[in-house]
Amino acid sequence: MKPPSRWTRLLQGLPGWVRRWLVRPGLVPPATIPATLWQQTLGRLPWLAGLGPDEQARLRELCARFLAEKEFHGAQGLAVSDAMALAVAAQACLPLLYWGTDALDWYDDFVGIVLHPDEVLAPREALDEAGVLHHWQEPLIGEAMAGGPVMLAWSHVQGDRQAQTEGHNLVIHEFAHKLDLRGKPAGSDANGCPPLPAGFMGLGPGAARQRWQQDWSAAYAEFCQQLELAERFGQPAPWLDPYAAQAPAEFFACACEAYWVARERFALEFPQLAPLLDAFFRRPPR
After folding, report:
1. Which domain, by its residues, includes 269?
2. Residue range 57-70: average pLDDT?
3. Is the CB of residue 2 less than 8 Å from the CB of residue 13?
4. Is residue 118 one of the residues assigned to a domain?
5. How far is residue 121's CA from residue 14's CA, in Å, rounded to a whole number?
6. How far apart are CA 87 and CA 108, in angstroms?
7. Residue 31 pLDDT
8. Structurally, how many domains does the chain consist of?
């Protein structure tokens, strides 16, 4: 990108909450994303090709504001380029595309995004029923923490384009966890039930929540059963990433990534969930 303007340099020196307040439509404008870099980013992310010119312009504006609000850090000596930061921003902002000018408020609980060259080993511990504390290391390619930064393995952000167009997208997966965590009490875990917009599917708040939980619970149970039949008896494996069976929160995140990069296939595999995600993301019919 071109060298930052005086306003941009000032923004970068301010606390995150001040930047979020200032970088709103009509206040301090974020730095413009150069057209060449933007077109290169669109070319590297084939699932964005279906967006119309107005949608691409809206996404570009969201990305500019996102980049002004967030701080990228490279771990283990990784140098984060403008192209890398924009690639993450474009994918993180895609689910917010139809949520209006306050869409980035969904990501206001954190500032930092940490990129690692590859997967990392995270220390874990758990107490079993006998009171024995177990320690182990868990390989991670991404992690989203409530009130904390988002971690991504750059090798998997780049990923295999073919795999991504078939329903895999690490960035959208981790930022779906952020959507899921929105509004939950401190210390709570994601559970696959994000806050629903007012008037969701023409229902009142209670009925909307009930509809969401019933349909997602049924789809999750069916998916887990299909996966078990595939693993034990060699039946055809379900299309969605098997990691989705880990927990309802992972099922929601895997569903979101598949929905955004392969909407038509997702609707075929999960006809009961596609309308729910259409309504949640306020995505207009094609």
Report:
1. 191-286
2. 96
3. no
4. no
5. 33
6. 20
7. 76
8. 1
**Is 19 contained in some domain?**
no
The closest alpha carbon to 159, from 145, 167, 170, belongs to: 170
Do residues 276 and 251 lie in contact, with contact meaning Cβ atoms separated by under 8 Å? no
DSSP annotation string for the chain: -PPPPHHHHHHHTS-HHHHHHHSSTTSSPPPPPPHHHHHHHHHH-GGGTTS-HHHHHHHHHHHHHHHHH-EEEE-TT----HHHHHHHHHHHHGGGTTS-TTGGGGGTT--EEEEESS-EEEEEEEE-TTS-EEEEEEEESEEE-TTS-EEEEHHHHH--HHHHHTT--HHHHHHHHHHHHTTPPTTPPP-S-PPPPTTGGG--HHHHHHHHHHHHHHHHHHHHHHHHHHHHH-PPPPSS-GGGGG-HHHHHHHHHHHHHH-HHHHHHH-TTTHHHHHHHHTPPP-
CA distance 130 to 222: 32
What is the dihedral sign for C-alpha 141, 167, 253, 144? positive
Q: What percent of the chain has pLDDT over 70?
A: 87
pLDDT at 35 over 80: yes
Q: Which residue has the higher pLDDT, 162 or 90?
A: 90
Task: List pLDDT tens digits, range 235-247.
Answer: 999 999 999 999 9
CA angle 83, 147, 112 (to 5 degrees): 25
Separation of first and last alpha carbons in the chain: 33
- Whether 271 is in a domain gets the answer yes
Q: What is the pLDDT of residues 135-156, one digit of tens each?
A: 888 889 999 989 999 999 999 9
User: In angstroms, what CA-CA distances link 237 with 6, 169, 206?
Assistant: 54, 19, 35
Whether 238 is covered by a domain: the verdict is yes
